[in-house]
Each structure stands twice: as structure tokens, then as C-alpha cells.
Amino acid sequence: MTDVGYRGIVDMDYRHDARDDTYKLLDVNPRIGASFRLFATRENVDVVRALHLDLTGRRVPANTDWERRKWLVEPLDLATVAKMWHERTLRLTDWVRSYRGVEEYAWLARDDPRPFAAMVMRSLLAGGRRLSLSEAARGEAWLS
Q1: Which H or E element spans position 131?
Q2: In a domain, 4, yes or no
């Protein structure tokens, strides 16, 4: 971003590539991303607060506590667990233990459970649609 002269908030997505054990940049958006709360310090300075402080000429505390925060994106976790369970590379006790120390969830919040409930319903409906489509495809193949 420095090379192109950009200054400001940016939302970037990286993924680990096990083939060469490196992280690959997938997406760059010059805006606040949906996961901005995942990067909050112990003093509760998240990306939005840091942006506000910077834009109003106030000092942004230099703190990198977020580097060791443990967070979870629930639907992605469940998809990974299902895959690992199918491959027999994950035990139930290890999965349950992996939730220890999670500080932030992408969808679940005690003070507002509605987004989590909506995500669960949307995921169940999408899963049901995929199941119906795959059953229909198997039926069509059987009929032909």
C-alpha cells in the first residue's frame, strides 16, 4: 500500500498455502472491513476508534495486543471441523478444547445474539438447498 501511496484504513485477506507454507494476499479493500472488532487492544481501541482518533488529530495509542488475540469465524470453523471429522483428523475433545481462550466471535455476541441466530438460519437454509440440489442431481442421473 505504501508503494502506491495509499494512507488510511485497509481491509486485507490472507490465506495460508500449505503447498509452500506461505501466506497469499487474496483481497485488498481500502475501507473498514467487517472484522474490524477482531483487532481491538486491551484498552478497547479497535480499527474504527483508531481511525476516528487519527482523523481528529489525536494520538492513536501504539499497541499491538491484537497480535495474540484468539478469534473465531463460526461458519468457517464448522466447515473445517466437518471436513476434518470426515477425514478422521480431528477428535471431538480437541475441537472442544480449541475454543478455550477465544476472545472474539465473528457472529456471536452476548449483548446481541440476533446476528448469530440469523447466520445459523441462513446457513441451515443454504445447507438444505445444497442437499436438495445434490439429491435432485442424483435422481436425474438415475432416471437417465
Answers
A1: helix 114-143
A2: yes
Is a pLDDT exceeding 60 seen at residue 77?
Answer: yes
Rg (CA), the chain: 20
Judge whether 142 lies within some domain: no
Residues in the chain: 144
| Cut 0.90: pTM above it | no
Look at residue 56 and tell me if it is in a domain.
yes
Q: What confidence score (pLDDT) does residue 138 get? A: 57
Contact 118, 108 (CB under 8 A): no
Contact (Cβ atoms closer than 8 angstroms) between residue 56 and residue 38: no
Q: Answer yes or no: is 99 within a domain.
A: no
Amino acid at 70: K
Domain count, the chain: 1
What local confidence, expressed as pLDDT, does residue 46 receive? 86
Print the domain residue range for 59. Answer: 1-68
Measure the CA–CA gap between 72 and 3, rounded to whole angstroms: 32
Residue 61 C-alpha cell reads as 495509542
pLDDT for the residue numbered 143: 46
Nearest alpha carbon to residue 107 among 122, 92, 85, 129: 122
Using DSSP's 3-state secondary structure scheme, residue 61 falls into coil
